[in-house]
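Now read the record:
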Amino acid sequence: MSAEPSQVEATPVRAAAPIDKHEALIRSDNFKKIRTVVFASMNMSAALMMSREQVRAGIEQIAAEVVMRERLNVTTAEQTLIVNEILNDMFGVGPIEPLLADESVTDILVNGPDQVYAERHGRLELTPLKFRDNAHVINVAQRIAAAVGRRVDESSPMVDARLADGSRVNVVLPPIAIRGASISIRKFAKRNITLARMAQQGNMSPAMTRMLKIAGACRLNVVISGGTGSGKTTLLNALSHHIDEHERIVTIEDAAELQLQQPHVVSLETRPENAEGLGSVSQRDLVRNALRMRPDRIILGETRGAEAFDVLQAMNTGHDGSMTTIHANTPRDAITRLESMVMMANGNLPLLSIRRQIASAVHLILQIERMRDGMRRVTRITEVAGMEGDVVITQDLFTFRFDTTAYQDEVRGAFESSSLRPVFSARAAYYGLEEQLLEAMRP
């Protein structure tokens, strides 16, 4: 019984060869010749009004003619690859277009022309995709920015933008980015994520889902807290499904990515300053303006500065059911960050006054975390219970307790209910949902 031959046979073949071949092809003189002739021969403004498949036939014909005329050493498979790369340049985002189409990819990170990383299931991996050169990366970045009316160049080397599907894009160009242009894309899930689906995936428990649905129906003011890439916006979108369709909602974001399903939604987006340093519209400006638009709810994509004061004012002045996200590691940290941001806007406000505003405005803080196994979990649902002296009192309604005995790659644990009676149960009774709320809180 010799296991050795089978072990030799099972040795994986080195996969670098086709990767190197692909890279060599898109950086070859043959590719440059065909691409130059294609762009010189076609009416680009007319081509961009046509569909991708309509343009493909014309490019294939031009490519074939160039190969025949110049007698280029290009196979049929390589010719197809060249046509696809040119189409991606014209209609998409260059060589990273396949990653945008891959639903398992959540983040795409371009570090110059030679490094493209993708995140799948919470883990980063280096892909074989490459850009031709740094100018190619910059060209793609500028097209992304121009599509949403923004610009990025040496004088303005950083920009936040979005793709047509709502995916968030951040671009940093040289000389700020030392090793070449950087593009970071946070992809927006094509399938609609709901609270029920999050419970199925293990992001939260069914009891937490029931409680959050009641919170949405009772028009509680909710703050979603978490780190970068923890899934705050996804959870905000899922929560928004439980807003009544007859309500008027105003959303405010830096780069519009919320996808609300209700019919009466007004979406506002900030605007950076122009080349003369004029014309900027901040989130604070938009929040103030939103108060004059007769909203039932205001949803702020992310609170990160002086607009925190205006958001709390809105929550305290009849816009119940408003929601926002904030970067913080715990619910208590989220309260502290809100205090700091309000102070940025109004440094002369006493801390006690700020805390009273937070205690009366915010009802729930949802803490979401991306854990070491890549899974996003709602680790805590915390209720703001009021003030005791000069301290904001909170109580945890649900927590995720991880199993300290399990050290596998997968984090193990359980979602636990505190069995406490929520302070907002009186509000739930007003909406006829108290019994359902208490049922959801039972362990």
